[in-house]
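Ticket #4471: structure output looks truncated?

Reporter: J.K.
Steps to reproduce: submitted the chain below (439 residues) through the standard prediction queue, then opened the result file.
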Amino acid sequence: MRNIYAINHFLVENSWKCRFWIESDLEKSDEGNLNLLLLKEVAHIRDSGHPKLSLDLIELARSNGVDNPWLLDNQARAYIRLSQNTKGYRIWCDLVLFANDVSLRQSCLRALINFKAYDFLAQIDQKLKVSSTDGFDSTLAVVSDLIEKKDFQSTYAVLDSLTKQSCFHPMVSYYRALADHAAGNASECLMICDALLSGDLADDRLTIKVQELANTIRSDTSIYCNIEKYHSDLNASFVRFGWRAVYVNGKEDNIPLLNKSVVKEAIAARDSGLVQMSLTILNLALLYEPNNPWVLENKARALCLLADFGEAMEVCRIILNLHPKHRAANSALSMLERYDRNYKLSAIYAEVQKLIPLGNLKREEALFKMQESFAIGFTPEGGRLMNLLMQANKPHDSNHRESQPRISLEVFQADLQSAVQINRGLAAPVQPLSSLRSD
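Returned output as attached by the reporter:
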């Protein structure tokens, strides 16, 4: 490795305490070990919260003769940490296309899949056109069936599995585009189509299909895919609320990437007290990605802060329905537990239903729970369960007189008869929503 002293000087100049690149050990290390130590130090700097310093070190090392392709992989990861995702995806894409190291190519493939950079995978499919996997056609038939059944999670899993097996073929990306279109992810679908059409697919029938799919999206006036207009509308919202953008910089070149910035912007606005602006730009984001889980989750939070609990709970249910295994679903469930009247009542009723057949003591507990439910609201199901409890207690009342104090059923009977006066609205939140934070 040429000029390791330049690297030493750089690290000292930036007051970095090395963990792997120890100057006293360098003289005893051969070229291979030096490369490994440098890679470890680069990754350590990045993972310690200094991606810019990591990038600078990589540039310095490469300019001093270090020709290790794994440095490029680390460069991509540093760009991701700096929210410059497109630069990172481009590096990974080039490494998959041109690197000789199979392990490196697999690492880059996994990264592109994990970040759902399917437009870049489409570029790889379009250029390599390799389908060496056994049963390729039958696998695509399974994918087609899954799309018909609207099992999109399984669809993406099967297609990702093909890609991980180094099965690069435009048909894989075409089916990803079909799945995105069927799932309502128009912007992702269009990005994949444009990537496929950027070169020669060597298949006229497939080219026509991809072009027709892209044309369908662009001709549908109910689908929003014009990123220039999106940027313009965002800027208008910022001006309207007197907000200076922190995360949206106008350089985002695709809608999913822009929406990541919009979510961060919405959180910053909400934390600054501009909840209405936060909701405004999130609604704008949903025009372009109607099913984006983080946009939906932050919209629910904003609605709760604006006391629009009904719509907020509907948004939470949409998240749980569309993204049951996504991290946003945990937050949605938490909001339902705190703020949704029907959710709370359903949980109480389920417990009461289990307690009724378990004997007198458990029915006493069930009566207390029903009393708790009346503080939240009254429903026909609550009345039905209360009647069941009263009927179950009748034999006990007629045949047994206990000396210890018992709950008076007459009190509950009165509660039932005055149901109109019982609070039918939402229970007061048990925790301020401002304490909820986005991941």
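Triage note (M.O.): checked the attachment and the full token line is present. Residues 397-408, 413-439 have pLDDT under 50 and may be disordered.
Status: closed, working as intended.
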